[in-house]
Amino acid sequence: MRTTIREVAREAGVSPSTVSRALSMPGLVNSVTRERVLRAAQRLGYEPNRAARGLITGKTGNLGLIVPDLANPFFPSLVKGVQARAREADYAVFLADSDEDPAAESDLVRVLAKQVDGLILCSPRGREEDILTLAATTTLVMVNRRFGRVPSVVFDNSDGIGQAVAHLAALGHKRVGWVGGPRASWSDRDRIRALRAATAAAGMDLYVAGHFPPQFEGGVAAADLIVAAGVTSVIAYNDVMALGLLGRLRDRGLRVPQDISVIGIDDIQMSSMSSPTLTTVSLAKEQAGRAAVDLLLSLLERPDGVRKPRRELPTQLLVRGSTGVAPTD
Prior knowledge:
By secondary structure, the chain is an alpha/beta fold. The chain is 45% helix and 19% strand. The protein has helices at residues 5-12, 16-24, 31-44, 50-57, 75-88, 102-112, 128-135, 157-170, 186-202, 216-229, 239-251, 285-301, and strands at residues 62-67, 92-97, 118-122, 140-143, 152-155, 175-180, 205-211, 233-236, 261-266, 279-283, 310-313, 315-318. The strands form two sheets. A six-stranded parallel sheet has the order 2-1-3-4-5-11, with helices on both faces. The N and C termini lie far apart (78 Å). It comes from Micromonospora musae.
C-alpha cells in the first residue's frame, strides 16, 4: 500500500496541511517542523503525488526536451545528460523529435508548454522571430544555437575548428574542403565562419561543397564533389557525414589518410570504431545536457533573469587515424 500524507502527518505529529507545505513550499514551515516531517516521510517511504503537488504549487515537475532527429547519434548523449540532471532535481523529462521540421518544432513547443515547467530546444531549426515568439510564452533554453537574449548553451566552435585547421596545416595541407550540414543550422553557419577565418589566417585554400543532410548519406553525396575539387583534406559538419565520406572515398579507390585526410565533428561512439579511426572535434554532449537543465532550473527559480544566460563549453580535437601528412603533388 502506498503511504499517504495522513500517515506521515501522524508519524510527525503535525497536520496533513503542514506536511503538504513542508514538502511543496518549505519556506512557509519553520526548519524544526520541516526536518521532522522530512524524517517521517523518509522512514515511511512516502513519495509525493506529482499531480497533486502540481495543483498546490502550480508546477508540473516536468521538463520538455525537443531534438531535430533522434536517429542522429549526436543526440543520445545529450539526452542522457538532460535526463540525469533532471532526475537529480526531481523532474521528469518529456522527449520529442521534430524530424528537422521547423513547423513541427514550433507545434511541439506549443503542445509541450502546457504540460511542462520549461523547455530545452536542441539545435532548433526555426527562424529567430519564431523562436523569440515561443520564448515569450514559455521558459526555454536553446542548446547548440545562440542569438538575441534567449538563454543558450553552445560549444566553442571557433576554437574547435581552429584546432582542426592548425592540425591540418602542421601536416602540410594547403587545400581543405568543407562539407556543410543543414542550411537552417546555426552550428553550420558558426562553423563555416570559424573555418573561413582559420584557413585565411593559415594561408590555406578553402572549398565549400555546399549543404547536405546531416546523415551518412549526406557525406556519401558530398564525396565526389570533394574529389573533383582536388583538396587534400576535408572537414565534415558532423561525424556521421564524415563516416559517409570515408565510405565513398574508399569506393573511389582513395586511401585515407594517404591520399586525403578527413575530420569530423562531435566524437560520437562510432568515430573510434571506423577504419581508419576518425579524427574529430570532440563536443561535451552530456555536459551540455546537464548545463541546459541547470540553466533552465535557474530561470524557473528566477524568472526575472539569471546572471549568465549564455554558456559556452570547450571543444577538443582528437587526433586519430583519418588524418596524415599531405600527399605530394
